[in-house]
Amino acid sequence: MKRTVIVIALCLMQAMPLIAQPEEHKAEHTLKHHNVVALFVGNTLIKPSGFNLPTVGIEYIRELNHHIGIGFMAEAEIGSHIIQVNEINGNVTELDRSGAILLIPAVFARVYKGLIASVGYGVEFENNENLGLLKVSLEYKLPMKNERFMVLPTVSWDHTNRFEGWVYGVNFGYLF
After folding, report:
1. Could you report the per-residue pLDDT of 91-144, keeping only the tens digit for each?
2. What pLDDT score was predicted for residue 12?
3. Which residues are within 8 A (CB) of 169 and not within 5 positions of it... i.e. 6 or more apart?
């Protein structure tokens, strides 16, 4: 499943130049500002336990061109949740996870106008166990009067080998 999502994301990023706008429209898409920093405020819904955890985070993105950017996401889940772990001998134990910190390098791509897709693979740090984490996100850049400020409603899917989660919220960003 992970490989499929990664392959699809990479294929979409490779296809972006093919669906780029014609030459006469490219002049209006020159980048004035290449860096974006954003504050994320939202909620994480953990599956299958159903726990809701308030989530805060920051993002940094360096735009390489009008379509592609690379960056880094850091999020903190405030609170705790319990997951069930199937042990090798068939016993099921509960594991209390609290105060998880997520660090994820990611690739960002403008899909269509204000719609931005991102994919990244990083680590979720927690006291009991650190887990590899795949994050796939969609966000929409709302039009603002001042082009240096951004508001982006965001939804993402987080996947580890222990559980999955849906994260939704808002990014408040600044271009520089």
Report:
1. 555 667 778 899 999 999 999 989 999 999 999 998 878 999 999 999 999 999
2. 56
3. 40, 41, 42, 43, 55, 153, 154
The Cα 25–Cα 148 span in angstroms is 21
Structure tokens at 144: 């603002």
Two tokens, residue 119: 């994919």
The residue behind tokens 């996100």 is 137
Q: Which of 29, 23, 75, 81 is nearest to 50 (CA)?
A: 81
Residue 29 DSSP label: G
165 contacts 38 by C-beta, under 8 angstroms: no
Query: Does the pLDDT value for residue 1 go beyond 70?
Result: no
Place of tokens 């889940």: 77
**Tokens at 155, concatenated:** 């939804």
Task: Write the CA distances from 49 to 71, 75, 80, 129, integer angstroms.
Answer: 30, 20, 11, 18
Q: Do residues 151 and 171 lie in contact, with contact meaning Cβ atoms separated by under 8 Å?
A: yes
Element of type H or E holding 160: none
Cα–Cα distance between 62 and 176 in angstroms, integer? 10
Q: Can you tell me whether residue 142 is helix, strand or coil?
A: coil
